[in-house]
Amino acid sequence: MAYELASERLEQIYAEYRKIAYPYLLVDASRRGAGRDGDTEAVYGTTPAPTVLQLLEFGGATADDVFYDLGCGLGVPTIVAAHFCKRSIGIEFLPEVAEKAREVARGLNIDNAVFELNDYKSADVSLGTLIYCYSTCMRAQSRVEVAESVSRARPGTRILTVTHNFEHPELEMKEKRELSWEGSSHTVYLHLRK
Ligand SMILES: C[S@@+](CC[C@H](N)C(=O)[O-])C[C@H]1O[C@@H](n2cnc3c(N)ncnc32)[C@H](O)[C@@H]1O
User: Fold this and answer.
1) How many domains does the chain have?
2) Nearest CA to ligand 1 atom 24
3) Closest Cα to atom 5, ligand 1: which residue?
4) 102 falls within a domain
């Protein structure tokens, strides 16, 4: 499979995101509204669309996959993955942020992407077959909880994490790659649910 999007489509995606004037401030206000001010895991951050294409290639995304982004923020990975996977699900616990991601999906006429308002530590993600987590800011205990959750997915499920790998008896770390985005190098880990 070619993990590419036509330049016109990429431009449409960028145009939808440009409508969000101050994304950082939106996340900040939503975090305060949810009483999570100071929560170091509830931070603004976006995986750029071209990087998501690299991640989909690394994870071997196919049209049979159910893609999950745990902590989806404004939804770029979920939106991009929806072009390659049969279903794409973003989990986000900040309501205004999840709603903004839904607006982007509507603006792009994407109907196989959904944004669930939920805590990824307790959400059932067992139907996911390709799971992404921008885990850089996750505390060690959160990583243990999320590793337990994704270990309930079916064998063969691929799990991509950033900066930290997940450790669990049911997960095998297969490969890691250095990818650069937003001026920094990031280690991305590919795990396989055994
Ligand atoms: C660094 S951003 C990543 C956004 C997106 N995954 C991307 O790569 O573009 C992390 C997001 O995870 C959300 N988040 C943090 N903890 C969460 C939790 N326990 N449940 C759901 N969302 C969470 C934050 O609110 C934030 O929007």
Assistant:
1) 1
2) 42
3) 72
4) yes
